[in-house]
């Protein structure tokens, strides 16, 4: 009988967290342990978790989602298990989600990823192919097609998200833990690509379903620029870091992601004209974030 530990990373979403825990307890395939990483929540999360005798809790300062999953997977690795099921506090696995993920397991699989549903439509940011050699193409290639996301057969992917991946303990022993100090963005893509480089498969399993909480519009380049500025700096920095780390040739490692910051510069200039949401000094910050990534300057960004 395979043993499975669930790892949930939470920060100030108490109502969502309660629903996640309830969903985990109601799985048709029973979990052996639920571990919650509380990233310094201040909304009563700690008090609530103290009332749960059957949940293991790890409390730390808010070092972002990347630090949360680093800690959660590290703690889970101390227990005997076959799989570690990772998720944020805003996705709710349906009753048979875990069971259907396990059915999709096959030789050389390292990670199994569920399909996410938001507002009655499929929500996905996974990609089948990551371009790390051709500077004249985008970074994320081969988006999941309409056929991919509704068929019964699993689909091989290279880029995943930390919203429900079932990670084989064997893989963790092989490649280690997620990159701790990215804070947000690209910790999941980096981890799945490390799995690919180590010879493991990463599969998207359409029949295993999670419901995703709705907070805002999809994260696109446009919505990212129009949202909180601090998120943009992390996205730029971590994209630059990922490309430098995994690029397949010297030119791509240094210049492959250049199109992304140029697009952001244009979008910021448009916002300056339209609604004054940005300042000209933000262009300098964007450039610094890009250079931080190339130099491997990680952790919380401060200018």
From TrEMBL:
Alphabetized SUPFAM superfamilies for the sequence: Nucleotide-diphospho-sugar transferases
Pfam families, per database record: Glycos_transf_2
Regions crossing the membrane: 251-273
UniProt-recorded Gene Ontology molecular function terms: glycosyltransferase activity
Residues annotated as domain Glycosyltransferase 2-like: 7-125
Swiss-Prot/TrEMBL keywords: Glycosyltransferase, Membrane, Transferase, Transmembrane, Transmembrane helix
Stated family: Belongs to the glycosyltransferase 2 family.
Protein name per UniProt: Glycosyltransferase family 2 protein
Organism of derivation: Segatella copri
